[in-house]
Each structure stands twice: as C-alpha cells, then as structure tokens.
Amino acid sequence: DMARRVVESLNLIENPEFNPFHPANKKSFSLRAMILGEGEPPTEKQIMAKTIESFWAAISINPVRKTQLVKISVSSRDVEFAPVAANAIAVAYIESQLDARIGMTQQAANWLRERLGGLKQKLIKSEIALQQFRESKGLLDIEGVDTLVSNELQQITQRLVEVRSERINAETNFFQLKKLKNTSYDSLSSLPIILKNPFVARIKELESTTELKVSELSKRYGPKHPRMIAAQSDLDAVRETLLTQMKRIAEGIENEYSAAKSKEQSLLQALTKSKEDMLLINQTEFQLADYVRAVEVNRTLYETFFQRINETAETGTLQAANARVVDEAVISARPIKPKKKLIVALALVVSLMFGIALAFLLDALDSTIKTADDVDHKLGVPLLGVLPLLGTENIKSPTKEQAPVYSFVHGNSEGFKESVRTLRTSLTLAGLENPVQVLLFTSTVPGEGKTTTSVNLASAYGQMDKVLLIDADMRRPTVAKQLQIPPGSPGLSNALAYPESLDDSIYSMEELNIDVMPAGAIPPNPLELLSSKNFKEMLETLKGRYQKIIIDSAPMQAVSDALYLSTLTDGLVYVIKADATADKQVKTGLTRLEDSNARILG
Description:
Blueprint: H1 2-9, H2 26-36, H3 44-57, E1 59-63, E2 70-74, H4 81-137, H5 142-178, H6 185-188, H7 192-195, H8 198-218, H9 226-315, H10 340-365, H11 372-379, H12 407-410, H13 414-430, E3 438-443, H14 450-462, E4 467-471, H15 479-482, H16 492-497, E5 507-509, E6 514-517, H17 526-530, H18 533-543, E7 548-552, H19 561-566, E8 571-575, H20 583-595
Parallel strand pairs: 3-7, 3-8, 4-6, 4-7
Antiparallel strand pairs: 1-2, 5-6
C-alpha cells in the first residue's frame, strides 16, 4: 500500500526506469514478448503491479541501531529523483498510519451511534411509562398531596387528644351522677359538678337568704302566722326552682357524655381513613420514584453516549502521527555504485594499517556520552548524579534482591545506594528556590535506565515523604512487570478513562515505602489521554495526597509524550546511558524540551 501511494503520487508509470512496459523500453519488451511468446498487451493492473514491484526493489529501509530511527534509501539512475522518492516514502508511511487511526476512530463513532439509537428508544419508552403512570393515578403534585394528607392526619390526631380528654371528664361526671340512688334534692346537691354551676350557686345563695329570713320570723311568730306562712312559701318555691335546675344539669351531663363519645368515635374513624390515605400515597410515591429513577438512568446513559460521540467527532481529525521525518533525504554527493576507486583505496589502507586505523576510526566515530565531563562539555546541562552498573542486568530471572528496581532497598551495592542518595540531594538543592513536587523522568531511547533510576529514587524519597510513582510510558510500560504487579491490573490509562477508578489504580509497595500507579491497559492513543483534562485534574488531586510525585515518561525520540508532560511538572531529569547514546540524539531531545519551556534540572 505504501509503495502504491508513492507510485501514484509520483506518477512512476511514466518513468521508464520502473515501468518495464514504458514505450522507452519498447525494444526490451518486444524481445521478451517474442522469446516468451507473450502476444497480449499488458493490462493497466499488470502495469501497475510491475511498476510497484520494480520500485519496491529499489527501496532500502534499515533501522538505526540502538535508536527508534529508520533510514530510507532509494537507488535510482536519476540523482535528483532518489531523494524525492525517499521523502515521498516517509510521507506515505505517516499518511497511512494517520488513515488507519482515523479509520479506527470512525469505527468507534459508528458503534457509538448505533448504541445511541437504542438508548434513545429506551429513554422514550421510560418517559412514556412515567407519563402513563401519572395519568393512571391522577398525579399532579404528589408532594403537595403528601403534605396535605400529613397535615390533616396531624390535625385529626391533635383534635382526638382534645376530644378524648373531654370525653374522660364527661364520663367522670356521668358515673358520679350514676352512683346516686335517686335524683332528690339532697342527692343532687351533694355533687360538686352541679354545685359549681353559676345559676345553681345563685339560687343556693337565695335559698340561704330565705332560710335565714324564715329562721328570724320563727322566733317572733308561730307557724300559722301570715308572715311566717309567706316566708315558708318563698323558701319552698326557691328549693323547687333549685331542684328543677339541678335535674336539668344532670340531664345535660348525660347528654354531654353521649356527645363526647360520638365525637371521639367519629374522630377515630377519620383517623383510620387518614392513615389509609397516607399509606396509599406512600405506596404511590415509591412506584413513582421507580419510574422517575428509570427515566433519569436512561437519560444519563443517553447524554453520556451523546457527549462521547461529539468528542469522538471533534478529535477524530486531530490524530497525531506516531512517526515524523527527522532529516529529509538529500542528493548523494557521489554515486553509490560502482565504487572501484574506494574499494582499491580501502583495500590498501586496511592491508597496511588495519589495527591503528580501526582504533582511531572507532574512537572518532564514537560520539556517545562516556564520562561525567562529557555531560558538561557536550550537552551544557548540570550533572545531578552518576549511577554505577549493578551487574544484574543480564540475569534472566533475578530474585527480588537482584532486581535493579529493588537495588536501593534490598541490593548489596552500597556504592549504588550512595549514588541514589547523592542524586536525591542534588535534586533537593536544585529545588531550594522553586520546590519540586512533581518530577518527570525521560531519556532519548528505551533501555537507558530511566525506570530503574526513577523507582530507586522514589524509594529514597519514600524514607522521608509520601511518594507516588506513575508509569506514564503507556507505549512500552515496564514498571508493573518489574514490581511484580499482576498483568491486567488497572493503572494510569484506566484512571484517565474512568476518573472514579483512581484509587483502584494505585498500589501500595510497602517494601519500597512508595505508592505506584502502573501504566494500565495499553491505549491506542497515549498522547491524547495524557493531554486530556482528566490528566490535569488527576494530577491536581494527587498533589494534595503526596509530597512527591515521580513520573516515568516515554523516551524522547519518535513520540512527544515527555514534551507535553514537561509542561505540567515542576522539573525534569534526563537519563543517559553511558557509552550508548549519541550526543547528537541527546542534544536533539534536550533542544525539543527547551523549546517547550521545560525546567530541565539536569
């Protein structure tokens, strides 16, 4: 596919060097047809296939040792065409990768749209069911009805207490009345409830006055004296009136008791009815809550999928390429073949001075960083520390004591431990003016020891502070494997995709005195996850929990993860493996970081 893209973009079918059927090659084509007996002219498909085959044979793609670079070469008789074709191959590769990633994004968007349709129908059904339930129960304002019935129940209960108290008082008076043997004057006048009546009290006062008058007249006159007869008649009339009034009050007591009982019974029935209404309303509320909850859940799912579709549509065309052109191809200064003069000269030199020339040649060609002085002279950045080789890197199945990441805790090399402490001290001094809470580790290429350095430094910090180590190299994660965290365990990618799983993505490593967040599941788009708002919010949350956060990032070459992460951290440490990485590659990485305004501590 890549070769076809270049053939079509450069129109190589019109180039006789690669199209054997081109009119310029008519003689050789005619001779071949005559020998092989091919009388039929080639089809367009055959011409394209042969052109692609010829062009592919002229391409040479070789990886650069110990880097993530590849070198593309094209052999051609046309000296100006060769670099154009090589650059076109690089562009075609980058475009094919982008097309593939965009295609994956579109597939995800199509799947989301299909699910969205089903969720929309489910939401509509739940809303219809809710409306039908409201209509079937005649619900307008269930909360208002609930409050009304509750107030009514409270009022009835309060009134029942009052009426019951009245009935008890009336019942007491009634039973006192019942205890009387008869309703004579003496019996009725013995009841306190009757005597308390105001009208009875006034008549009793009149009776006392009349009795006093009769008593005084009896001292002067005889019983048959007219004045004595008149006074006695007045006394009898008063007592008759008093008896009549007391009987009326007695009847009133009986009527009051009957009325109180009736009123209490009526309120008891009303209370029972109100309780039944309240129970029915509660049952209706529970049923309504189920319908409302179903609508809310379906609406939340629908809105979540709808938002995810919009995000996918917006970011679908913003895919970042996972490769870039470091140096464009240029015209070769000399022909690559044949090299007769060079072969003769080299044969003479090699035969005469092989040993000396080889030694000088290797030394001249070796541009790697070898010593601590090279860091200052060649790179111009501070040297924070030098960690010695442990001698356990080539052990296939090291024990925990032999594993490089446990060297500071379990290792036997005191020199290595002291070197880690020196590195910790250098970083502490570098952060005196501007404290460093979030520290980023990166390197030029994989295998330079940034993970070993970051884990051991985290263990050193863990003796003093609460430390979190984050494996942000989601392309080639190694922290989980080296710390023996089970495969498939959630980590950084899971916490970014589902922020609520943050605590489940952090593991406590008690032996190392640190917490660790592995990379988690390897995502198809690590840089998009790292540059998301979720990562910034997660980092702010973790700052509140930990005094020191160390991030193990991807190498600088070919990817831009570390560039972006350097803008979110307080400082960056660049790890270089001695006698392995070319100073030009390191300078390129440092320059890119400086252009991003990264704070390079050393």
